[in-house]
Each structure stands twice: as C-alpha cells, then as structure tokens.
Prior knowledge:
The protein is an alpha+beta fold and 367 residues long. The chain has helices spanning 46-52, 57-63, 80-94, 99-104, 114-120, 125-135, 168-187, 207-213, 242-259, 263-276, 282-288, 293-302, 307-326, 330-336, 342-353, 357-362, and strands at residues 11-14, 20-23, 37-39, 77-79, 143-150, 153-160, 195-197, 217-218, 224-229. The chain is globular, with a radius of gyration of 20 Å.
Amino acid sequence: MSWNDELLGPYIGPAGGGDAIIVDEPRERRSSISAGIIRVGAAKEIPAVLREFGLDPERTIAEAGVDPRLLDDPDNIIPFATLGHLISVCVARTRCLHFGLLLGQRGDASSLGVVGLLLRQARDVGSALRDLVKYLHLHDRGAVSNLTVDHGTALLSYAIYQPRAESTDQIADGAMAIGCNLMRGLCGLDWTPREVLLPHRKPADVAPFRHFFQAPIRFDAEEAALVFSTECLSRPLPDADPDLHRLLRAHLHDLDKVHGGELPDQMRRLMRTLLLHHQCSADGMAKLFSIHRRTLNRRLRLQGTGFHTLVEEARYQIARQLMSDMRIPLAQVAAALDYSEPSSFTRAFRRWSGMSPTEWRSAQPPL
C-alpha cells in the first residue's frame, strides 16, 4: 500500500441490533474521517491481546456488536463510541484493568497512518510533535492532542471530547502508551518521560504502568499527558526526508481543507485543551485561525452559535467527565475550569443541567 492510500479504506461499523455493516464508500469520500470516528490503528492488536488471555477474539469482538473483520486493517475506521464499548467488553472478559495499556504498548507512530509517516519525516522532534497536534484529527475525531512548553518542561496531552464514550480511562492509557512509544521512536529507545499524567483513579496494581513508562505516574490528573524536558524538542531526526515531508504535509493540508469540519467543530476540538490550560479566549482563538475576532464572531453567527456558547458547552462536557470519571473534589473541578470560586461553578452547572454538581454526581451509577 502506498503512503497516499493509507487513509483510504472501507468503513466498517455497527448497525442496529448489534450486527455489523460494511459500507464501500466512493474513494474520494474515504480520504479522511468525520466527527466521532477514529481509524482502527493500534486497535488492530485487540485480537492478539485477547489471545494472550486465552479468549476467542472473534467471539469476544462479536459480543460487543462489532464485525471482527473491522480489526483486520488499521486503515479501517470505527465510531469512537463503538471502540470505547468494545474495549469495555474486553476489560470485562479479561478482567484486566490495564487492558488499554497493554493495547497501547503495541502501537507507535505507524498506528497513525499518514499522520505517523509525516512525523518521522520532520526535521526535529519538536516539529514532529507540532505536526501531530495539527493533524491528529485526521486520524482521531474523538480527542485532541496539545503540546505546551513552559520553563524547560514540555507537556504532550491527549484529551477525549467525544460525549458518552465508554472506557475513556482505558483509551487514555492506551494513548499515553502509544505516545511514549512514539517518543522513543523519535528520541531513542532509552527515552523516558519525567512524569506521566493519567485522568483516572489509581488502580490497585500500578506495577504494569511503572514497568512500561519507567517514570513517576500521577493518577487523577485533569488530562492524560507525558511530561518531559524541552531539550529533546530540538533533537534532529537523521532519517527525515524533507521532500517527502513537504509532500505529505501538502496532502494532509488539502485533506484538512476539505474534511476539517465547520468552524464551530474545529473550535470544539481546540477548546477541550485550551480550557484546561486557562488559555481559551476569543482573541486567542481568532489568532489560531488567522482571522480577526470580528470575522470569527460573524462566521459563528452564520453557523447559529457564538464563542460564549461554545465555551459553555465545552465547560459542561469537561465538568461531567471530571466528576464522573475521577470523583475529584468539586473545588478542583471548578479550578480546572478557571472559576474563581466553587460557588460560581455551582451556579453555572445548575444553569447547564438543571441540578447542582452534588445532585448530578449522586445521580450517576456507581463505577
């Protein structure tokens, strides 16, 4: 398969009643993925991991309502929510609470298709990671990645924004494992992060995490992230091909123009990370899209929304994820969303949901 075909492939997804369907879309419509969809990528290894537990992969995958043929090719695409449900079934059948970590350990840059190929052709590690942040949505439309640098420390994060997805903790673990392998591919096999942040409770057995990451791990973090020194960002990639990098980048840029989505959807992808880093402003967002703030507001009005509305939507979604996934103190949730006082967060949450954060949390089923 040529690099130009790596994002092209049949869409296979679940139909009603748990059966699977295969839709052979026209080739020109298969060059990218739509909202709520992700390439199979590293999930291709699910059957292999299931076999390690002595399970029948086809039976387990079919039990989740997924056609096992879906996982034959990493270039197939799957609804993000379906992947989450499939992983939930795998966790239940294997009784392995670090299933996502085991799956992610088998992934690397190649799991990202054309996007991963682009990274390996960048001039240095920093350029590769910026390419990852810019184009990950052409591989994964359920989460967003971000790279932040501050006082000698870099943070490469992965934040899920797909609503009502199952096993977000497992997916985050897998993403961090893939990210770690990606960094080792760029920086050398001896690379280790300074710290790994995982957005879920500390498991009873942390040994598998420590063994793989070889670094301190902070659980109940606000987002999944690898923390490392900025020194490696300037490290050159000796095997990079500048001509191929330009060609791949132009190809992905063209895909992005056609399949990047409407402006509100693009902004929703960015807001999940920007809000957690307290960097979400209308002026800043306009700068990211290289347009004037008035132009940003006008285009949003034409789409029937506005900047403040999108911020409120994103805050509500983040708040629910933080409270349901981690049960962290409400004061910490408020601070993560940049509210000066917990009472301000409580009033906002009541406006969004019709109930207080405490009432909403009490109404959630036990994990």
